[in-house]
């Protein structure tokens, strides 16, 4: 059995070391990581400031490979999201909508009943480009090809920006996103790391130190692009989908060039897709109670509550006031507003 090599790396601010597996990170990427600013991570010892956003060493490695090698096709569909903002739900809805002529939502063997949405709409940074020493051949994938990412718009591959492929983006009010992220981080962190306290995570979040954050930069990147190129980027909000999923699913279908027909509406196709992809339905499926996706994230941790306004059970009035001030400072004047309660 081959032995895995490890390298201890040390970089700016605060001292300390992080162990990186040599067989999963190239020497070139390791040297880059050594040069980057770093902060304590939520579920890893450190996160690094790469191209203006915070991420982990393995994510940096994958993103570099993705940026260098991915060649977009005009028919591609990219589901881009802020982490913990409805990613799994939007992937399921997108897959069911785009593939409905091949896989009827009425089919008892529909792929979404047997596969997690992240298997059907794979992440660039966790699945497609996960291995630094192997570039996958994507040319023979069934079209339209569906992919997912948490990468900010500015750091998407050049071919995505220059092609006519479609990008669907979703974000969620930062209060609920924070709580969901905090719970998720503590569920998937290695046992060797202590539990991340709510107060500590909150301070990091308000500073922008969270995976693929700052959250305001992430949101604004896609928001501005959706305004400048509405045929390229469709900007959605989690709360809007929860409020009127029928209306917004029609928007998604029209945006992707596969609108629902009147006959499909009358047959209940839209309602059936909504039911198939509902939080409760997906949470109860055996495939989502077990198994893993990406870098061995357990599927069962993807489904907690999916509610709007759950943050009021965890944030103090002073914390709410502080995060409100951050949002005003960073998002004020952009036109972005959020519904905080159900």
UniProtKB/TrEMBL annotation:
InterPro entries: P-loop_NTPase (IPR027417), Sulfotransferase_dom (IPR000863). Its EC number is 2.8.2.-. One of its GO terms (molecular function) is sulfotransferase activity. It comes from the Eukaryota. The gene is LOC100776542. The keyword Transferase applies. Transmembrane segments: none annotated. This is Sulfotransferase. Belongs to the sulfotransferase 1 family. One of its GO terms (cellular component) is cytoplasm. The lineage of its organism: Eukaryota, Viridiplantae, Streptophyta, Embryophyta, Tracheophyta. Residues 1-23 are annotated as: Disordered. GO terms for biological process: sulfation.
């Amino acid at each position: 059995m081959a032995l895995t090599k490890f390298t201890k790396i040390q970089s700016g601010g605060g001292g300390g070391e992080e162990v990186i597996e040599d067989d999963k990170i190239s020497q070139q990427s390791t040297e880059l990581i050594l040069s980057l600013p770093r902060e304590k991570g939520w579920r890893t010892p450190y996160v690094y400031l790469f191209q203006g956003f915070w991420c982990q060493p393995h994510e940096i490695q994958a993103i570099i490979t993705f940026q260098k090698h991915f060649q977009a096709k005009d028919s591609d569909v990219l589901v881009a999201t802020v982490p913990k903002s409805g990613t799994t739900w939007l992937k399921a809805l997108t897959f069911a909508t785009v593939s409905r002529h091949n896989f009827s939502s009425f089919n008892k063997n529909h792929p979404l009943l047997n596969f997690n949405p992240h298997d059907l709409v794979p992440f660039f940074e966790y699945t497609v480009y996960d291995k630094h020493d192997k570039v996958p051949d994507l040319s023979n994938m069934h079209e339209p090809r569906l992919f997912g990412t948490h990468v900010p718009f500015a750091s998407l591959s050049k071919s995505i920006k220059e092609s006519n492929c479609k990008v669907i983006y979703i974000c969620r009010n930062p209060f609920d996103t924070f709580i969901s992220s905090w719970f998720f981080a503590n569920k998937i962190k290695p046992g060797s790391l202590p539990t991340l306290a709510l107060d500590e995570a909150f301070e990091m979040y308000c500073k922008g130190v969270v995976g693929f954050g700052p959250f305001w930069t992430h949101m604004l990147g896609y928001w501005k692009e959706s305004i400048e190129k509405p045929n390229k980027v469709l900007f959605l909000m989690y709360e809007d989908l929860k409020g009127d999923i029928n209306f917004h699913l029609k928007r998604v279908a029209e945006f992707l060039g596969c609108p629902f027909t009147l006959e499909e509406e009358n047959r209940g196709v839209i309602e059936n897709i909504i039911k198939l992809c509902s939080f409760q339905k997906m949470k109860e499926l055996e495939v989502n109670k077990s198994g893993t996706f990406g870098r061995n994230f357990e599927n069962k941790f993807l489904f907690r509550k999916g509610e709007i306004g759950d943050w009021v059970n965890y944030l103090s009035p002073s914390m709410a006031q502080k995060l409100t001030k951050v949002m005003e400072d960073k998002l004020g004047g952009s036109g972005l507003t959020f519904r905080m309660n159900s």
